User: Fold this.
Amino acid sequence: MSVMTSFTLRSLRKNRVRTVVSVVGIALSCALLAAVFTSVASLQAGLYERTLETEGSWQVYAPSMSAAALENLERSDNVADMAVSRELGSAYLTEQDSLTMGKIATVRTLPRTVKGTFSPEGSPLTMIPEISEGRMPENAEEIMLPDFCKNAVLGEGASDAGVSSSGPLEVGGTLSLDLGTRVVDDANGDGRLTLNSVTHSYLSSAEGTYPHDEEIVDASIRTYTVVGFYERQSSFLGNDFTAASSSTSIVAITSADAGEEGDVTGTYLTVRGLSSAQAVQDLVLDAIGDEHVYPTYHYNLFRYQGIDDGRPITGTLWMIAYVLAAVIIVASVSLIYNSFAISVADRTRQFGLLSSIGASKKQLRRSVLFEAFFLGLIGIPLGVLVGLAGVALVFSFSQEAFAALLGTGGGVPVHIDPVVIAIVVLLSIVVLLASAWVPARRAGRVSAVDAIRQTQDVKLSKRAARKALGVGRRAARGGKAAVGPTGLAGKLFGAPGFIAHRSLSRSSARGRTVVASLAVSVALIVVSGSVAAYLSPIADRAEIQDGAGSGADITVSGSAPQMAEMSAFASDLDDFCERAEMIEGVKFLSSYRQGQADAVIPAEMISSDGRIVGDDLDAQRGSPWSPASFSEEGDYLGDVTIFYLDDASWLELVRELGLDEGRFTDASNPRAIALNRYQGILQDDSYADMKPFADTGTVDFYVIDHTVQVDSESWAFVGLLKDSAGTLSAGYINQYSEGEPDMMEKPIEDVAARSTLEIGALADEVPASINTAAASMHFPAIMLPASVAGSAVGAKSPGGEAGLFDFYWSNLSFTAEDHSAAAVALEELAGDSDLLDFRVYDVAEASQQSRLIAQAVQLFIFCFSIIMLLIAVANVFNTLTNSIILRTREFAMLKSAGMGDRAFARMLAYECASYAVRGLVIGLIAATATTFFLYQAARLSFSGLEFGLPWPYVGAAIAVVLAVLAVSVAFALHKSHASSVVDALRADAV
Assistant:
């Protein structure tokens, strides 16, 4: 062991407090880096594995491909794996069967590999359904059916049924299908389109898009033996090759080798050598060359495989990650640098003496770098262990949150990636060496004269020297010596303040280090608040998903049958609600009914946010015959969504807003409340959180004939129009005309009845009773009491078929002791009701997951804030404590010169106040700049955000800095207990 090494180790042993604080600082820095990197790696690995297991490894799915397109993709070097599933044909179910089974039954083959390594037993390119009974089909004469078909009798009593069974469907039974190809005439008259049952529901001319109903051509009877039943998967289109459109419930699966060229062929593939989603799209679309084929891209998988999907949220998260990484590194460098800077200042005399006996500058530098290396040997491994333990602890306490985030039944295992740990260790070493390098160079420049005179502590800055010289000269001209306190410091604090002021005027590295330490600490605390502020929109959006804020466990939604009377539909809903409450453990919570009407909203009622939303929705529609949402005067022209709250929920809302109950509960003269919050997705894929209304007022509503006959041709209403003179009219198109659809305008009084409605108040938050409707995604939206729904208070259209307060959708919310059992019971009850189109949705689990996802985000914010606070406290405590301890000899000399305890405290109070003010100002400037970068990052994905500092965190930063200053000074004074010059000089011995 060399002399310099021995000297360094002896110095570390002697200054145990400084050594421990330095190790803690290095460990904290490394722990934070390890925790951040390991958390990201663990979540990335967990999400990737969950996606593979639940959604498959496919990256692109095209539901129908030509033989030429398949050949192009198979030949491409960028296609790694490829499998196909053929659609052998479809058949129509009888009208009776379609009430419960859907309108169309389709036969599809199991996926077959044409390139790569996919197999049903191997890598999950797409999800293979789980067998509930029986086995997989092994030849072209066998099929497997979805489990809801079990024991059903199809085609009973119909001689021309397209789908018929030999009896109740069971393993070993038979099913006959009149299979053919689904086709429909193109709306533009360009021929016939071939349909597939993955993306196309039953197409009827009644929908107004196609001139004729679809039909099945080239049909022939095929009979299959049922060999098994499979469980339906809850997955989005593309995950599961058994997925089908809403009107195609039955997908029968046969063996992979069935089918032949010419059948509708769906294709799954993975790519290689492409780094962006756009490049993947270009590859696939170029190979397909058919504008009627719409591939699905697996964006969930792209983001975990490092493929840029072009979404603003990706850029936001990366920018926030970059800012946080910069903050962590700056905090780490500040914490470690301060420790070494003070350490070198502490040993100025020692370095000078070593220099006087022959130690070279290189040896002195190496001694400091060796100290950094030695402390790193202890602090870095300790930091890695603490970081991993912290991640494991956080993950264990938040298993439910992360399970919800991942959509799995378990939590997130800590994924210890050697590469990630190596990066953390390497980055920690770089930070450590960077922090120690400047103090090491400073140590190498110390001379024997510096050690004797302690010039680094007493040297005045040039400005202070000039000022002192000027004061001395003025005093000499006046015949008086420049003695005693001067300036504000002298007036307020007397001689102690004068001494403190002179001490602060020196060009002292210690003073600059203390101020820098305070500034970084203030910035860390404020930036923690900024991170919380600009990550909160992510948590907020999770909290409004899936009815998370409604308090409901089960919802039952139903739409009105076509041509149904409103009174009959309302009666059915009330009857269903009464019978539902008779189910044990089920309790009615709230309800709403939903309708729509066309209106003209005055410009003064629409805010600038509302104008942005309306213009964006126009751009998203992109239809050349859709009128703009705003007139030249700025009036809104278009449809308004109306939510009718049940009377109890309406009364609760009125009371929450402090409104006059009498005015807002009068059904004969209804007054509406506008929903003044929009949380949709804009055309650039950013998330909006805006207030679309500027004020209340009176709105003109128009009940319009949506179809008019002109010369035996049917014209469809497309929107309200207002010319430059302010004349209002209704626009209609004849979409069956050749080429571009013909458009005409009808005077509004000929086709519509006008009615006015007062918007009496604005609600900035979505009531819980309509949370399940994703109400904040509607623009514009108003609320009324349910007593108005379906009433004759509003106007009727001239044709008499529609009323202002008609509704087409209703939602009933329930709480349940056992939500799973209640969902089953309500589904059975709904099947017996007169609601022809209904949906029972178990929101308890989904809303819990949304809440837990929000909690996961909030947990990250909390942990980040706590770690930043610890670093800030350690930074200030370490810097100030050591700075004061280094002045033990100075303090002893002042005491020996007669300075009392009170004067001594006033001197330190002045110095600390100066440090605090400068540190707070610089720290707030740095925090403001960092917050601005976070704000710019968040603006990429979240519209409507406003820039601002998190003032509660600013207050916390000030309080923490003052508290740590006080504790640090008290602790340092306790440690620097030398009561005489002799004691101080003895303590300075090497």
Summary: DSSP finds 27 helices and 28 strands in the chain. The mean pLDDT is 79. Residues 677 and 691 are 5 Å apart (CA to CA). The first strand starts at residue 60 and ends at 65.
